[in-house]
Design goal:
Elements (H helix, E strand, L loop, with lengths): L6 E5 L3 H23 L2 E5 L6 H7 L13 E5 L1 E3 L9 H8 L21 H15 L12 E4 L24 E2 L2 E2 L4 E6 L1 H6 L2 E6 L5 H9 L18 E6 L13
Parallel strand pairs: 1-10, 2-3, 2-5, 5-9, 9-10
Antiparallel strand pairs: 4-8, 6-8, 7-8
The protein binds 6-phosphogluconic acid.
The site of 6-phosphogluconic acid has 14 residues, from loops.
Length: 254
């Protein structure tokens, strides 16, 4: 896949350095955005990789550098479990970050799963996005930051290989059945992710080396490698990775 002009790769020693670089980037981007627009909207990723990053934001020197009342948090995807369930992406972020920072409750926008079916949650979340971004019909929200992870199968958010969600071009939020897991998920769609001003992937560990190499350097085959769908329209794309490159031919910027 051709390297996109807006794409860059930041090579780090390990997850700890990845997390620190991501926290520095997050605070810098946030301060710049708030200085110009008075608000910063980020869609957060679930899974395990971003946990140390979220934890860093919850403590100084990062915590007190952020005007949390001007920050809005959304989620890129969610599992269809109650928001206090051990598998909930919302619960994970609440425990490691939200409970430790003075962010107004009204600025935190979880995907409303748990108390309703996935399709209804997706429809409701789309309404939340349209209202929060003050969107007209047919408009797509432009997140200041879209934080993404990637699975070992090349999925991102809950856009899984072979999923009908990969072809969605109109809706902002969908609720695909993920055959690989035998569950429903709720996820932002590629058009929303690609509208973001900054898309940052945190990808760690040798288990993802081969799939990352295929994503970055293999043939364009997003149905098999959904992370390849992520090509920001005019935003920046950054892969923050760790020792993966020792096993792949990715050429990192230092
Ligand atoms: C989720 C995430 C998902 C995640 C990848 C990587 O709900 O699990 O949104 O897309 O980012 O599966 O997960 P790890 O960071 O745990 O490897």
């Amino acid at each position: 896949m051709m390297k996109q002009d807006s794409e860059s790769i930041l090579l780090c020693r390990d997850l700890e350095e990845m997390s620190r670089k991501a926290a520095e980037l997050f605070v810098g981007l946030l301060q710049e955005t708030i200085a110009s627009r008075g608000r910063f909207s980020a869609a957060l990723s679930g899974g395990s990789t971003p946990v140390p990053f979220y934890s860093l934001l919850a403590e100084n020197p990062f915590r007190d550098r952020v005007p949390w009342s001007m920050v809005h948090f959304f989620w890129g995807d969610e599992r269809c479990v109650p928001l206090d369930h051990a598998d909930s992406n919302y619960r994970m972020v609440r425990e490691v970050l939200l409970d430790k920072i003075p962010i107004p409750k009204a600025n935190v926008h979880p995907i409303p799963v748990g108390s309703m079916d996935a399709q209804t949650a997706a429809t409701l979340y789309e309404k939340t996005l349209r209202k929060s971004f003050d969107l007209g019909k047919g408009q797509t929200p432009r997140f200041d930051l879209m934080l993404m992870g990637m699975g070992e199968d090349g999925h991102t958010a809950s856009l899984f290989p072979g999923s009908t969600a990969l072809e969605e071009t109109e809706r902002l939020v969908v609720a695909p059945h993920v055959a690989q897991l035998g569950v429903d998920r709720v996820t932002l769609t590629a058009p929303v992710i690609n509208e973001a001003a900054n898309v940052v992937f945190l990808i760690s560990g040798r288990a993802k080396a081969n799939v990352l190499r295929e994503v970055l350097e293999g043939d364009y085959d997003p149905n098999r490698l959904p992370t390849q769908l992520i090509r920001p329209r005019d935003g920046k794309l950054l892969f923050i990775i760790d020792n993966l490159v020792t096993e792949s031919t990715v050429t990192p910027e230092r």
